[in-house]
Amino acid sequence: MDESTIRIHLRETFSTVVNLPPDDLYGSNLTLSEIMARATGFTNSVDLMEAFARCAKSTKQRFGIRLRLPALPLDTRINEVIELFVAQALEATQEAKKNAAE
Amino acid sequence: MQPNEPTRRRGAGVEAGPPGAPLAPERELFLAFTRDGRSLIDVTWQQHVLHENRRWSATEFIERIDLAQLTEADRGHVWNAGKAELTTKPGADRLARQFDAECRRHLESNPTVAKIMQACGTWSRYWNEEEAFHEATLNRLSTLLGLEPISDDTFIEYRKLFPDDDALRTLMLLAISEITAAVNYAQCARHASDPGLKALLKQIGADEIQHMNYFVSFAKALVDSGVYPPKGALAVAVFFLREGGDLQGAHRDRIEERGTHVNWWDHIEFDAIGAVDALGKKEALVFNAVERVTGVRVSSLTELEDAWMDMLS
To answer: Cystine design at B99: which of B53, B68, B121, B303 (Cβ 3.0–4.6 Å)?
Structure first.
């Protein structure tokens, strides 16, 4: 798994989960509050947290990587969140490699 | 009764629930309606007897506090708690309105769920009244102690109604709010040196535990009905316990600005009450509540997240 693969996976999965086009999400680099307002059926930030949890579950199933789900301010932009998860995934991958080598 | 013990109304001398049942919130509300054939009148009487049995006198509790003996920490606890309690009335008002609406929404499709919703909405009047004692008592104490007055603007701000959410998530959030409050009051009581203040804080903390038990009971009944998937309850628990989550209250690096309502745990000034925080106890009680509501046993955030994610499609 490389950085690009995980980034594409996260972007596609999140777009599918919230049912918003990638161009809207990542092209406009929406904030979390803007996503909450646009996503159908979202009531509050628990729904947003669940959307990220679905991405984390999918990432675990496909790559065997566990992502943490920290609370983030609602003015955080989606590309920043994706990069946070990418960094977590890379860190977990390196850690796994290190453990395997020991 | 001990000479120094404030008045509490004791025993109505009648059965509150099924024969031999303890005086406590109904633990199996779904079965009470479906298996035992109990009516809303029966359940309401059980609520009323428990409420009446637990009443206490605010004026008598205040009279037994030696105001001159209170420490700076005690005074900080009283002021913060009194201000926080201002938010419970809009919480209860919202519960009454929302759960009556939920009752009518389910009336034809699932009469048992409609009854659970109505039982909860009905109980909200007791919750509201009991919380009123907390608010009035603590804010009166603040006034008598000459602490910074709470302005009418703040009072009105703290009365803002909470936005609606899914019923199960609402109940779980309220259960965790009561857990947080109960642990805070227990910590404050432990640090209070004046016996009168200690007794008051312990009494309020015991009320909050009872409220938590009610929210757990209603939430469990919704899950037992099969209409509300347990994932909603686990989601709210994760929301509070996650890194930077709401259980950390005012300790968080950043508190979300909200125009809609006030979450009391966002505004406790912990600098004044550094000893109050007891995250481990709160987490353990949240895990216990999760198990009672959903049957899912977890003992860490990782286990909780795993269990929750297993439920997600």
So the answer is: B121
